[in-house]
Design a protein that fits this description.
Elements: H1 9-31, H2 51-54, H3 62-82, H4 87-105, H5 115-132, H6 135-148, H7 169-185
Helix pairs in contact: 1-3, 3-5, 4-5, 4-7, 5-6, 5-7
């Protein structure tokens, strides 16, 4: 399975390109005095649907962008290294699905920021690693929980998240649900454990195994009961046969 973990230029290039592009959009907004907030997700309005695509690239201020940049670099790099085959679908489809969820359940306000994508990556990497049961991916899941486990608290509405300029807990919840759904939908057969022994099979029956029959319920070694073999009765013939041809000559009785 180690051959599936390959370090390529995209492991570093993809996160850096994505984050640099976010800073470039923010620079355009400051340099030319644009207001991209109006292009965010505005729930249950037709014009607000454009935010499903544009909202992850729009941030309110430099602090907002700074707080999203480092988690994106780490999680995108982990996604590209461990799940390279699924990374494109997770990012693109994840932005669309989580954005639609936010558009449906969100408050009537503009929802912007790449935090929804962060929750998609966090959720997918955590749940997928547990599902594969592969030791390196399980370790990655535990590392993600240790570093970013505190993100879970921001998927619930709190008194500090109901203001006009507060965080979008709806976007966080949509990202978390999307990542969990994708962890179930996208299969990773390349990380499936190769069965080498019969006892690793799910339908293995110890009672039918000759080796396991040598042990009792307490794990003590015992001898198998001797199987009495029935001897076949040999039929004794009253005459003998020969495989050599016998030629008889008839002589006249003189």
């Amino acid at each position: 399975m180690e051959k599936h973990f390959k370090f390529t230029n995209s492991v570093i290039g993809l996160p850096l390109f994505f984050v640099v592009f976010l800073w470039f959009v923010f620079w355009l907004e400051i340099r030319f005095d644009f207001d991209f907030v109006q292009n965010g997700i505005y729930p249950r309005s037709f014009s607000g649907l454009q935010g499903v695509i544009f909202s992850p690239f729009i941030h309110a201020d430099m602090k907002h962008l700074y707080n999203n940049s480092f988690p994106l670099i780490m999680l995108l790099a982990a996604l590209q290294y461990f799940y390279a085959k699924q990374s494109f679908q997770i990012i693109v489809y994840g932005i669309i699905v989580s954005g639609c969820i936010t558009w449906i359940i969100g408050r009537e306000n503009y929802h912007i920021g790449a935090s929804g994508l962060i929750y998609i990556l966090f959720s997918f990497i955590f749940f997928k690693g547990i599902q594969t049961k592969y030791i390196r991916l399980v370790a990655l899941s535990l590392a993600v929980v240790v570093v970013y486990g505190g993100l879970v608290w921001y998927i619930f509405p709190t008194p500090s998240s109901v203001g006009e300029n507060s965080i979008s807990w709806e976007g966080h919840l949509g990202g978390l649900l999307t990542g969990f759904f994708f962890s179930l939908y996208y299969k990773t057969p390349e990380y499936k454990k190769v069965i080498k022994y019969d006892w690793e099979r799910p339908d293995f029956d110890p009672s039918e195994d000759k080796f396991m029959q040598r042990f009792d319920v307490n794990g003590n070694f015992v001898n198998l009961p001797e199987i009495e073999e029935l001897e076949e009765q040999q039929v004794l013939l009253s005459y003998y046969t020969s495989s050599y041809p016998v030629i008889y000559e008839l002589c006249a009785n003189k």
